Amino acid sequence: MKKIFYTIIFCLPFLGHSQSTELKKQFGIEASILSLGASYELPVSTNILAEFSAGMGAANIKDYGLSMGVNFGEYTPYTKIGLRRYYNRDNRVRKGKDISYNRGNFVGIQNKILYGNDALNAVTMINELHWGIQTEIAKNLLFSFHVGLGHYYRKSDVRTDSNNYYSPIAPTLGLKIEYILF
C-alpha cells in the first residue's frame, strides 16, 4: 500500500504538467507588410481552427498579366475567413514542445475580400490553399507564416491590354505578427 501511495505522490507533478492538445480561442491584433487588423481564432474541433480577421490593408493590388503590383499609398478595408488543420500537435506534446497559443504546423484554406478599389484590373478576392507554421516569439506575440497557391478574382475579366497573359492562379505568401490580447 505504501508503494502505491509513494508512486502516486511521485507522479503527481508530472501528471499536472501534461498539456492538452486542444486548440484555444484567442483574440489579437495582427500586422503584416500589407495590413493591420484584428483577428479571432475559434476552435471547430480538436485539430481544426476557424480564423476571422478584418482590418485595413494595401488593397490596391493590380493584375498586370504575369506579375502583380501593390500601391502602398492606398489603404482600404479587408476581411478574411480561414480554416486551418493542425497536424502535428500530438507529436509536439510527446517531444515536450509547448503548444500554447495554437502553435504548430497546419494546412489551411483562406478567403480574403478586398474592398474599395474601383480599377478594372484590381484584385477583389483571393481564395488560397496553403501550408504554414504558427509559433510564439515572445510572451503573447506570435509569428505566422504560410505559403501556398491562390486563385484571385478581378473586378473585370476584360483585359485592357490584350497582349498580356492572364492567369488567375498565383503563388501566395503570408507573414504576420500577432499580439494576443485574450
Fold topology:
Elements: H1 2-16, E1 26-32, E2 35-43, E3 48-57, E4 61-63, E5 68-70, E6 76-86, H2 89-94, E7 104-114, E8 123-138, E9 141-154, E10 169-180
Antiparallel strand pairs: 1-2, 1-10, 2-3, 3-6, 4-5, 6-7, 7-8, 8-9, 9-10
Protein name: DUF3575 domain-containing protein
Which features characterize this protein?
mainly beta; 8-stranded antiparallel β-barrel; Porin; 10 strands; 53% strand; 182 residues; two-stranded antiparallel sheet; 2 helices
Structural account:
- With 182 residues, this protein is mainly β.
- The protein has a single domain (22-180), classed as Porin (Beta Barrel), CATH 2.40.160.
- Helix content is 12%, strand content 53%.
- The protein has 2 helices and 10 strands; from the N terminus they run αββββββαββββ.
- The strands form 2 sheets. An 8-stranded antiparallel β-barrel has the order 1-2-3-6-7-8-9-10.
- A hairpin with a 4-residue loop joins β4 and β5 (68-70).
- The longest helix has 15 residues, at 2-16.
- Residues 12-18 have low confidence and may be disordered.
